[in-house]
Amino acid sequence: MLEQIIDTIPIMINATDRSGKCLFTNAYQSALFDKDPDEMVGTDFANNFEPTLAANTRRRDALVLKSSLAIPHYEEKITSDGVDLVFHCNKSPLLNHKGETIGVLTTAVDITARKFAEEHRTHLALHDMLTGLPNRVLLAENVKSTIANCKKANSQSALLLLDLDRFKVINDTRGHHSGDALLREVAERISKVIGPEDFAARIGGDEFAIILSKFENIDSINSRCTKLLKAINEPYAISGVGQVISASIGVSLIPNDGDEYEEVLRMADLAMYDAKANGRNCYRFFSEDMNEIAQADAALENELRDAFNENQFALEYQPIVDAQSLEYVGLEALIRWDHPRRGRLLPIQFIRVADESGLMDILGSWVIGEVCREIKSYADRGIDLPRVAINVSPRQFQNQNLCDELLANIEANGIAPSKITIEITEELLIDNNEEVRATLQRIRSHGVGISIDDFGTGYSSLQYLRDLPANCLKIDRTFISRIEHSAADRAIIGTIAHLAHALDMRVVAEGVENDAQLDLLRVSGCDEIQGFKIARPQRAEDLGKLFDGRENDPPSRAAKG
Asked: Can you give the pLDDT of all 561 residues of the chain as single tens digits?
């Protein structure tokens, strides 16, 4: 009965004498070697294994026979029918009735499934489920080991951060399923470009990291980055539809740019954002200047947060006039920061940091509320201000409450919606999606004006002009500055004006600084004029002087502002 029980349990059991000859083996053990148990008795048991495993078996048996003690449990890999099996093994002394050690008793439990599950869990913990690439955890381990190796061998490596350009547009317009398919294809292309000693990881969203373990010189990194960009630029077929995307790459050198993981990652990140700022679809190496800019930005961000609490912001308003009559027809609200040490700062000195730090939502909300309050305040004094244009950043459109917030401020102050125009940039048009379109339609349906700012320098298409509910185009000042000497720029301005009028839009020329520009713009078809030629931005408290009785006092052609 005992022999039958031993033969039925799924554990390998065998006993050998002091010379290694098999005394007993159960059915499970003999089946592994495709033999009958009786056939194995009396043979050298270690001969059933390949040479290395046989040597290990004899060595462990000798330890048991010498000490008459069991040895610690161990794992052994045995190949059967071409399949690698992993066993949890135990060897203990085989005793006779006198307690003497006459051989070795070996038991082994098959833990192959458990080991596979453990390895699978470990793989999932260290790899990205979508692309199969290593994740941020494994990246950190590899960067740390790369830093240590570079120090030891006095060599260099490079860390690349690669971020896809405008990937959000694909998710918004094609859906996350298409976005995921694109990410998998990008991961495959990266893996094909990098060398066998290199390392690639997906560290979140549309961002990838690459460690170039060895390179001859900077030119070789240039070449590798160029190959990566070229591979990613090749068209994709996602769900049968063509798609093109680009990437921006930031490069930090190990250990030159840092000898800590967080440091080299931060340096590569700064370089990557510099690549984004320089037009995307390119790569940039980290430089100390970037670090200084980042430190300055961090300090400015802290000062911006304090500025909100200490009411350091103010608005100025630049007048807009009718191109023919030169009568005031509008204002553009321009934010200013009364810095306690640096004086009054223009938006160009802080808006980028506000946008990147997420403070633009708070700043934009303040501007909307302040403009509405100023219009009401002047109305209460009997002064009717013309419509006021408010610049709205693309980031504000990510806030689903923008329309509600705008309309609530208009209603709370009891002003006409037509008194407000929001100015959007072509960047918002590039990232155009149904949510943005619906928000703009709703804003326009309530009577608020919509103006496309800096028109002509971005990438907006005629389709956007046709589909979006804008009622005004602002021609960028770069065209205005060249109008006196460039027939091409005059032709562009005339064409924009003609197109806008066909779409029932007004055309505003900004940045007008002299009489010659003013005269040329009037004959080019521009409806309204804005710039230092007309008036400089006015402090809010000075608007009363400008608009009290303004119908009888239009601005002079020679106004200095």
From this structure: 888 888 888 899 999 999 999 999 999 888 888 888 889 999 999 998 899 999 999 999 999 999 999 999 999 998 887 888 999 999 999 999 999 999 999 999 999 988 888 877 877 778 888 999 999 999 999 999 999 999 998 899 999 999 999 888 787 777 888 889 999 999 999 999 998 899 999 998 899 999 998 787 888 899 999 999 999 999 998 877 888 899 999 999 999 888 899 999 999 999 998 898 888 899 999 887 777 777 788 888 899 999 988 999 999 999 999 999 999 999 999 999 999 999 999 999 898 888 878 888 889 999 999 999 999 999 999 999 999 999 998 777 766 588 889 999 999 999 999 999 999 876 666 555 677 778 888 999 999 999 988 776 655 556 667 777 889 999 888 889 899 989 988 998 999 899 899 989 999 999 999 999 999 999 999 999 999 998 999 999 999 888 875 544 555 444 433
C-alpha 545/C-alpha 213 separation (Å) is 68
DSSP state of 399: S
Report whether the peptide linkage leading into residue 255 is cis, meaning its omega lies within 30 degrees of zero.
yes
Structure tokens that stand for 362 in this block: 């708070």
Q: What are phi and psi of 451, to 5 degrees?
A: -120, 140
Helices (H) and strands (E) in the chain, counts: 21, 22
Contact between residue 506 and residue 500 where contact means Cβ atoms under 8 Å apart:
yes
| d(C-alpha 540, C-alpha 162), whole Å | 46
- φ, ψ of residue 261 in degrees (nearest 5): -55, -50
Q: Are strands 528-530 and 207-212 parallel, antiparallel or unpaired?
A: unpaired
CA distances from 68 to 95, 230, 379 (A): 9, 68, 103
Q: What three-state secondary structure class fits 139?
A: helix
Give alpha helix (H) positions in 47-135: 51-67, 112-126
Burial grade of 191 (CB within 10 A; 0-12, 13-18, 19 or more): middle
CB 312 within 8 A of CB 339: yes
Among residues 442, 441, 387, the alpha carbon closest in space to that of 418 is found at 387
How far is the C-alpha of 443 from the C-alpha of 525, rounded, in Å?
27
